[in-house]
Design a protein that fits this description.
It comes from Saccharothrix syringae. GO terms for molecular function: heme binding; L-tryptophan 2,3-dioxygenase activity; metal ion binding. This is Tryptophan 2,3-dioxygenase. The chain has 11 helices and 2 strands, in the order ααααααββααααα. The protein has 231 residues and is mostly helical. It has one domain: Methane Monooxygenase Hydroxylase, Chain G, domain 1 (Up-down Bundle). A two-stranded antiparallel sheet has the order 1-2. A hairpin with a 2-residue loop joins strand 1 and strand 2. The longest helix has 35 residues.
């Protein structure tokens, strides 16, 4: 009986067969490779979004009462990992800046109506985090955790490090919000570079559509924390 191999465990044959550029093979090789780069970056982003959404969902579950002290620490671990994974998403966009605009312009027509705006996982992440118009399910879980501990978010922010794990959770949420915002701003800059004022492939207004949707999550938490440092 043979043991499990690295290739079998990761299903490498399946994984490496999922990149199918629509640019004709008769086109310049640089254009085909540019589209492959574009596909790989987006596929990798969707994989990281899967992990981020799973971790944030697990964090929210850990924070919801009734919970034990160990559950709050577990939630903090999930949030800390998300902070780093948002950095990974951001760096992937930085790498995508190495896609020459002239090659993108050549394969863009083959995208037809496909657009990142159609990402179901991105919408799921937005629902978890919320925006400046309303809180998402993750922050509501944090509020419940504070109340279950006999305190409030305002009191946690006022006490700072004295609030222990609740303080660390609050700081992690703010780091997540900042990382998410930076990722979206970098995406806007990339789209502006690639298509400027042209419409997006999904029928949106392109860069303008993205710009109107950039907002920092956790507005109440940011407001309450700012009261601790009024100057």
């Amino acid at each position: 009986m043979t043991g499990l191999t690295y290739a079998d465990y990761l299903r490498m044959d399946d994984l490496l067969s999922l990149q199918s550029p629509r640019t004709p093979h008769t086109a310049d090789r640089a254009v085909v490779l540019a589209e492959q780069f574009f596909i790989i970056t987006h596929q990798a982003s969707e994989l990281w979004l899967k992990q981020i959404a799973s971790d944030l969902d697990a964090a929210a579950e850990a924070l919801c009462p009734p919970h034990q002290p160990a559950d709050l620490e577990l939630g903090a671990e999930f949030l800390a990992r998300t902070v780093e994974l948002l950095r990974v998403l951001h760096e992937q966009l930085v790498a995508l800046e190495k896609l020459p605009v002239r090659y993108f312009a050549e394969f863009r027509p083959y995208l037809a109506g496909a657009s990142g705006a159609q990402s179901a996982q991105f919408r799921m992440l937005a629902s978890l985090l919320g925006n400046d118009q309303g809180d998402g399910s993750l922050y509501r879980a944090y509020q419940s955790a504070a109340e279950h501990q006999g305190t409030s978010v305002a009191e946690v922010c006022a006490r700072g490090v004295g609030a222990g794990v609740l303080h660390r959770l609050a700081e992690a949420l703010l780091d997540i919000g900042n990382g998410y915002w930076r990722w979206k701003v970098t995406h806007l800059a990339l789209v502006s570079r690639m298509i400027d004022q042209r419409d997006g492939t999904g029928g949106t207004s392109g860069a303008g559509h993205l710009a109107r949707r950039i907002a920092l999550p956790f507005p109440e938490l940011r407001r309450l924390r700012s009261l601790r440092y009024p100057n």
